Amino acid sequence: MSGAQDDVVKARIYLAGFGVFRVDALDYGRSLRRMCADAGFEGLYPLDALAPADLSPCEKAAWIYRSNLAAIHRADIVMANVADFRGAGEPDSGTAFEIGFAAALGKPIWAYREDVTALRERVPCSATVLGDICERGFLVEDFGLSLNLMLACAATIVQGGPLACLRAISVAYEGGTTAPEDEATYDMICAADTVGVFQIESRAQMSMLPRLKPREFYDLVIEVAIVRPGPVQGGMVHPYLRRRQGVEPVSYPSPDVEQALKRTLGVPIFQEQVMQVAMLAAGFSAGEADQLRRAMAAWKRKGGLQHYHDRIVEGMLQRGYDREFAESIFAQIQGFGEYGFPESHAASFALLVYASCWLKRHEPAAFLCAMLNSQPMGFYSPSQLVQDAKRHGVGVLPVDVTISGWDSAMEGDGSMAPVRLGLSVVRGMREETARRIEAARTVRPFRDVADLANRAQLDRHDLQVLAAANALKPLSGDRRQALWAAVAAVPDKDLLRATTREEEAPALTAPTEGQDLIADYRSTGLTLGRHPLALLREKLLSMRLMPAEALVRYRNGQLARGCGIVTVRQRPGTANGVMFMTLEDETGSVNVIVWQSVLERQRREALGASLLAVYGVWQREGDVTHLVAQRLVDVSHLLGELPTASRDFH
Asked: What is the topology classification, in CATH, of domain 532-648?
């Protein structure tokens, strides 16, 4: 790809995947052309030619591949719509061919997302936003925009190693292979060590990972799709796991059904498979299968699936299938009405899953840094991300007004370089203020707080915010001394601005560890000191409340007591009234199951406690562990004035 001149990127672009699956492809393509022209691209290659309608998905893929070979060869960039295929209801195998071929040629690939204006505002670049992203080979697609912005930040931080990872998002690594299988990354995934990564960071996904044990890319595609209301309600999860683990034999009622379900061990997990079964086993036409797909998405709102019940069951009976199998297929179709994934959607997500996991495993410092700079996003707070990074050996350095920029940054080289927190984590700090501090600091170092206030034009609010976050420590000492210095350092106005005052600072008692910890949480939402429960551990042990690292060694069925800060509360509609909670202490997290009967009896403790003690039974299934609650005790008073926050019912 040629370089940028006068902020205009000269490039030939091939548009992949827009002409085959969209009825409005031509209008869509014209708007894309205008958008790319506005961004400064030199030229565009045509949309895909429409494939003949009577071809199967595989034949269509091969047809598209052959028809567009020359265009892909000539293009500098392949622009692909990999996440939004509506219309024919068929998998995106055609675009997969195009993207795979482009990747083998080392072409940068960019997947279109409508909100280009937001990207321009949020992603810094030397040329145009589109040019900057394409030049690095990024894929920015409809789902997971915040994650991609985070990965873009990570590439800027580390340059090189993570770039190889990031190219996995565009199905193009440095070696040109598709989704390389890195053993260490999959080991991390199987251990559910996925705090902060894309999609498989949730409690439900983390509980599934040790059961499913993904060891290759397609396993991630299934993992993303199976933890959804559709497969859960349709009863697909346990049969698939039993077959995958060898507990239950894989069987198919006919060769036709095997053709549709072989890749998922005879269990329909994707919407496309349900449609294939309807066509192959119940005699649906392609048009009827597409109508079924639409009905699956809207049956609760509009009704209409009962009509399909008779059509599916009778069609399968006529073709020799037994009623039990036919009824189970219809039950699974109803489950997909609760929200199931198409395979193309799951594959698109899985690319992002793998890329973010690779980055977390091999560049943990860059991963933390980029996550902090992309807030707010994701399932975890900055405090949880920092705690997790520290448990993985990443050093985290405090906000320091003499060093920190607006963004968090790595200090030094290497995957384990310490991360310096940026001024953006300080509550109440304005970005324009941080930029003035950075500009003044480049001229010469600050002598003291008064010099900082004067040259960076800080007002009383700015100084107090910095003092409360302990960011003035190198210039004035601990928080209390800094607050005193901040009050004294507010620049005078008008005639008195050029005058100086000589005042001796009083001797102030240093804050205790507990006071510092509370001030950390109030000012930044996190602490780099000891975890709050480390200060309470002696008291908690006297109450026989064990830390997470001790509980994880308990055997199945053992009576257990745990205690932690509540970080997550969830009550999914598919859980029959059960509430799930996550408790955090200084050694890790404990997942708690609260049955509906316990919840009804102890609703106040379950919903209101910041620090919760749980008495119950330890449940272990392989590497998956839970504390099943029998009694809840609110011990929030032990936290004193410590502010905490939990992610509730998202």
From this structure: OB fold (Dihydrolipoamide Acetyltransferase, E2P) (2.40.50)
